[in-house]
Structure formats: C-alpha cells, structure tokens
Known about the structure:
77% helix; mainly alpha; 14 helices
Amino acid sequence: MIPIAEYEADGATFVVPDLPIVNVMIDSLDDSVDQMDAVEGGEAITITPNQRIAEGVLFANNMIPFSALQGNEGVFSAIGDGFKAAWDWITGTIKSIWNFFFSRDNAEVAETTKKEIDEGNDKAKKAADGTQTDEEANSQASKMAKIADEGGDKATADSLKDAKSPKEKRAAIKAALKRLPTLNKTAQNKVLKAINLVEGSHKAFISIVSKDSPKTQAASDKMTGSDHPAADILIEMEALINKVIVKNAAFEPIVKKVATAKEVNAVISFGTAINANVAAMKTLGDDFNSKKNALQTVLTKTEDRMKKAKDAKDKAALKSEIGALRELVNQAVKVAKLIEITNVRLRGAHKALLEMFGL
C-alpha cells in the first residue's frame, strides 16, 4: 500500500510521509511541466507513471485526480486540475510537517525519550547504590539469577537465590552487576545491533545536507545566488542541521564506547548523554518551527510564480521552482523522520544495555 500523509480534520493524527512518495508527487509536477508544449499545441498527452502514482495518492486523500486538460490562462488551468491537486498535496504536507511535527510531536518525542531514559537511569543507580525497594530487589535478583544460570555462572546464581535478608540481596545484586555483562551473550548481541542502529541514524544526519540526485543538485545550484524564495530558508535550515552534526561529533565516541560497557555506571553516563543529544534534536525541531512564517512566504511566492507561467517559454523557470521545492521538502521530511527514528533507537539502545545488566 502506498504510504501517504494521514490527516484528521482536527489535526490529531499526522504521519510524516515517506520520501519516495513525496518525490514522486514532485516528479508528477515536473512531468506536467514537460507536457506544456503539447498542451499549448492542442495535442493529446499520455499520463506518466509518476502521475499515475500521484493519482493514487490524491485519491487516497480524497483530492482531485489528474483530469482533462483545459484552458490556457495559467499553469494551473493549462496543465489541468491534477497539477493544482498535486501542488495542494505537497504544500499541505509541508505545512502539516511544521504544524504537527515541529510544533507538537517534536516536543512529545523528546519528552517520551527523556522520561524513559530517566526511569532507566534511576533503576540502574538504585541497583548500584543498593537503594532500590525490597520489591524491586526481589524482582532484580530473580531476573539476574536466571541470566547467571543460563550463562553458566552457578556461584552468582546461587548467591542471588540464597540471599535472604534485604541487605544480603542488595549485596548480591551489586556483585551480579559486575558479572552479568560478560555472561549475557544474547543481550550483548542485542546491544551491538542497537548501537549500530544509533550510529546509522547519526550518520544519516550528516548526509542530510548532501544532495539526493543530480536533478536536485542542479536545482540547488541554480537557486544559489538567485531570487528563489526558498534559497534563504534552505541555507538557514542547513546551518541549523550542522549545529546538531557538530554536537553529534562529541556524542559518537560515547555511543561507540558504551557498546562494550562492563560497568553499570557507563550505562548511566550514556543515559545522561542521550538526554543531552535528544535536547539538541528537540532544539533543531524548535528552530525549524520558528521558520513557519518564512515557509509560508516561500510557498505563497512559489505558487504566485507558478500561476504566472503560461506557456512553454516559462518551462525552465517553472522546473527550477519545482526543484527548489523538492530540496526544501526533502530536507524537512528527512529531519522530521530522523528526529523520530533516532529517539526510538536511543531508547532501544539504553534499554538493551540495562537488560544486559539484568535490569
């Protein structure tokens, strides 16, 4: 099934669309511009594969499909209702990313991560300090004993099982914390996979400012130093992303080191570093959100320019506008997606590490 942007009238539900669909929708606009010559000459045109996919997306969103071509007063009427519908889908998606993700979900994602990391760190600190409740100690001892048994460490398992008093149980847990990371092979593999995923997310942040294709690169080159309405906001967005990349440079060694952690304090320190990294990503989302008014100006100016394009002579300028729009929406979708997935992966890595220690 084609992944699409999902909205409700009250804005309660919004799913950031996948980049391939966003780019197909933009490609459908490009294809429509290529058809301007035929439209101007009164020729019949053939709907392209991109436009066919766009039809499905528009239909799924209860929007107008690519329809019969009519009129010649401007690009929206000359190329048909489908061009206007595809444009509306793209601009609606861009606005929704800002209105729903950067304005709302960005903060919720960061809050969820911080809450989970803080709870995990609190559990680890109490186990290391011996300040957990009796109920928590009983649960931890039982879980740790099972791991020790499976790992072939009978002495550690028996120590946890035989501890009677709360004091003895807490002492056995402290001792087990030093043994379990080397015993829990399944958890070790899970940790390595989780850390690899985190590293992949952070590498993806670095690639955001690189261009996706020769077509996009060409559009960006044309835009540089011009009066394209998207130029300034794109430069500002890239500068904001680079700030996070710089902070990631300090975070990456911490991620690599914790993959082989043998001390529970290393996991606690990792949790603290996660919170700082998540705060940086939230700030990035907040900074993007502050560009909302500038974004609206970009969309308004771009649409005005599109409306003035009436014939094949305007094709090159119009395709350049669409290329600039592609650059902007690709960057916004990537950032939103990466903030989401990086938070999920950081939570998963911290949880995997805690499990390796039997917590």
